[in-house]
Amino acid sequence: MKKTHYFLLVFVIILSCKQQKDTTKSAIVINSESTEKINNTPFVWEGANIYFLLTDRFNNGDTTNDLNFERTKETGVLRGFMGGDIKGITVKIEEGYFTDLGINAIWFTPVVEQIHGSTNEGTGNTYGYHGYWTKDWTALDPNFGSKQDLSELVKTAHKNGIRILMDVVLNHTGPVTDIDPVWPEDWVRTGPACTYTNYETTTACTLVANLPDITTENNIEVELPDALLAKWKSEGRLSAELDELELFFNRTGCARTSKSYIIKWLTDYINDYGIDGFRVDTVKHVDENAWDELYKQASIAFENWKRKNPDAVLDDNPFYMVGEVYNYNISSGRDYDFGDKKVDYYAHGFKSLINFELKQDAEKDYESIFKKYNNLLQSKLKGKSVLNYLTSHDDGNPFDKERKRPYYAANVLLLTPGASQVYYGDESSRNLIIEGTEGDATLRSFMNWNEIDSLPETKKILKHWQKLGLFRANHPAIGAGRHQMLSKSPYVFERTFEKNDFKDKVVVALNLPKGKKSLSVKGFFGDGTKLYDTYSETNVEVKNGKIILDNEFDIALIELVQ
């Protein structure tokens, strides 16, 4: 982060915090040989290729932590812990799975300690396998792994040029169970349930029954819950936790509000491990000023980590926050409309918002999609971005739920302007229709590694996703550049991107005929320019404003020969 930007950040007015009492200097950026790309391609969040996974459902790297806190009650189908963990993610990074897929950022579901008991929300008995039912923000859940595991994950990811997005929850605690008490009433509300008719009935309420809502709009100081203090004492860390809190509140001047406690606990993971960004859950259900404070403290923690670990810094990108404003659509521009109030979450710490619109847009032709997204990102959302997706963990109406169009889905997701969210198993057509499941559990089966290893068609699908993903990762022009159609039939378009001294220009062709084909690049690449089609691995040269390919593929990914 540049110093001028940093000092502007420090002077942002936060309701519950005073002026910062200390400042940090920007770190000197030193890229290791293992993360520096040969062509010095810069990483830009606007065009990131983000892999989203459920920690418990991706890969079991440590079978010794599969059962904790006597979580042995019978659950609904896919509603209990299944063994996936932090080590499992690290293993796949080391194997090169993400690198081969062109992934340059990983977002995994929350790994903080979950409620110990189970609850039934009408969809079957459920444990907090998904990570969104927090019991203690200061600890990791042993089912997911240890803090040492998290440290190794971040280090391994950074060595491979991959950023880490931590999924964080500020809106609510976990449900109340017979062994998980409710937090004090000055911390949470237990009703009414949200009706979503206006701003108040979306923010000052509980998402569902028995999901206590943190009163993030309150600026009153609160005491730490007795149950939490007793827990820390039994674990032998009461004094250390209290000392850290004292240092935090003395340094920041923040009032000891419920949101400030949680913000301290969440930003500790940045300061300790170098987390690169947050994916923020349930954004529209929280007072928007809380996000300013979270971003401020997260940015300070990130700069502190950089200063302490200069050899581990990947680049000068600032801390990144992407928000889940449920049902936000890119067509809305910067505002989310509650009916009686509009909120610009981009003005409250967010670089990007998850875009819920692409799954509908995917039914349109390529040019209609790409032109629309280019126009919006180059105008209303200039300087910001969206995170596009086609499937996710809680969208019961994803695009191509039956996985009948995996190649087309890859083309749309990975070639549409904006950042991309590959939901685990998109690249391998993991089944989204699981017999016996209730609700969103059907979207959360275990990763289909066996099919990747054994089924020829699954391997072919994966290869297609890998080729597009790598091209996207190597060319920020795809996600963050400007789009322009070159030819309607066959469909050919170009993307360009410039940042400082770096320039990137590529050509992509889709819906091509099999066999010999001629692609027009006139006005974009001059005659005699040597190009390379990364999809068919073919060298070509521009002649008379065209390039000629002869293969069985219906797609071409064209780049300049380095």
What does this structure look like?
By secondary structure, the protein is of the alpha/beta class. It is globular and about 75 Å long. 46% of the residues are buried.
What's a quick, concise take on this entry?
By secondary structure, the protein is an alpha/beta fold. The protein has 16 helices and 24 strands.
Helix content: 25-40%
Low-confidence stretches: 1-16, 19-38
Biggest sheet character: 8 strands, parallel, barrel
The number of helical runs is 16
Query: Based on helices, strands and strand pairing, what is the structural class?
Result: alpha/beta
How far is it from the N-terminal to the C-terminal residue, by CA?
A: 30 Å
Overall 3D form: globular
What's the β-strand tally? Answer: 24
Strand content: 15-25%
- The pLDDT mean sits at 94
Cα radius of gyration in angstroms: 24 Å
Strand order of the largest sheet: 1-2-7-10-11-14-15-16
List the helices and strands and how they pair.
Blueprint: H1 3-10, E1 49-53, H2 55-58, H3 86-94, H4 97-100, E2 105-108, E3 112-114, E4 119-120, E5 125-126, E6 134-140, H5 147-159, E7 163-168, E8 188-189, H6 200-203, E9 213-214, H7 226-234, H8 238-252, H9 258-273, E10 277-280, H10 289-308, E11 320-323, E12 336-337, E13 342-343, E14 352-355, H11 358-361, H12 366-377, E15 385-388, H13 406-415, E16 419-423, H14 449-454, H15 456-474, H16 477-480, E17 482-487, E18 491-499, E19 502-510, E20 515-520, E21 530-533, E22 538-541, E23 546-551, E24 556-560
Parallel strand pairs: 1-2, 1-16, 2-7, 7-10, 10-11, 11-14, 14-15, 15-16
Antiparallel strand pairs: 3-6, 4-5, 8-9, 12-13, 17-18, 18-19, 19-24, 20-23, 21-22, 21-24
Helix pairs in contact: 3-5, 9-10, 13-15
